[in-house]
Design a protein that fits this description.
By secondary structure, this protein is mainly alpha-helical. It has a domain at 42-76. Helices cover 38% and strands 0% of the residues.
């Protein structure tokens, strides 16, 4: 009976791999990560515009915010109260 002799290609396929070096994971802080800043800015501006549009009819908001902000233009209702249906 002849003994089975594996080729060098077959032996290299089952070669023991060296042990992976154990690397301790490093702490990676996400505070300096600025990828979320543009998204947060867009959401903030959108929320500010939405609040300005929704509250532009409130007299207290008009007086306290819109009258004192030079870049916030709003529609001023000049229709007399006697001409309004409600």
């Amino acid at each position: 009976m002849s003994a089975f002799r594996a080729s060098s290609a077959a032996l290299s396929a089952f070669r023991a791999t060296p042990r992976a070096s154990f690397v301790k994971p490093k702490f990676q802080p996400h505070i300096g990560d600025t990828l979320w800043v543009p998204s947060l800015g867009i959401w903030g501006v959108t929320a500010g515009v939405l609040v300005t549009i929704l509250f532009s009819g409130v007299p207290l908001f008009q007086h306290d915010v819109l009258d004192k902000t030079p870049v916030a233009w709003f529609y001023e209702d000049r229709v007399p109260d006697s001409d309004k249906p409600f």
